[in-house]
Design goal:
The chain is mostly helical and about 110 residues long. About 55% of the residues lie in helices and about 0% in strands. It has a domain of about 60 residues: lambda repressor-like DNA-binding domains (434 Repressor (Amino-terminal Domain)), CATH 1.10.260.40. Helix 6 crosses helix 7. The longest helix is centred in the C-terminal third of the chain and has 12 residues. The N and C termini lie far apart (about 70 Å).
């Protein structure tokens, strides 16, 4: 057998219980608790949307008519978008080109 091939006999499948037990025993791989999750600062969703579109903050702000300072505040966690803005961001995430066309259709 070559060094690059692995046979099924060499693999030792672990049960779900064994995986869970091993993870809990490893201090570097323990699952996060609810307290851990509450303590962690989550990256605002707008950052994920903007990066997925491959746009800079300036480009995203201009394209979707969002004040640049507001966008930066959202991304840096100084402020959070309100509910109507979260709905707007959801539309951008789902169909960014359509939102862009609608916003800029009257500016011809």
């Amino acid at each position: 057998m070559s060094k690059t091939s692995i046979s099924n006999k060499m693999l030792r499948p672990m049960s779900t219980e064994a995986i869970e037990k091993a993870a809990r025993a490893d201090p570097d791989a323990r699952p996060l608790t609810l307290t851990d999750l509450k303590r962690m600062k989550q990256r605002p969703r707008v950052h994920v949307i903007r990066r997925a579109l491959g746009l800079t903050q300036e480009e995203f702000a201009e394209r979707y008519h969002i004040p640049l300072g507001t966008l930066r505040d959202w991304e840096q966690g100084r402020a959070e978008p309100d509910q109507p803005t979260r709905a707007y961001l959801t539309l951008i995430a789902r169909d960014p080109e359509h939102v862009h066309r609608i916003l800029n259709s009257g500016s011809r």
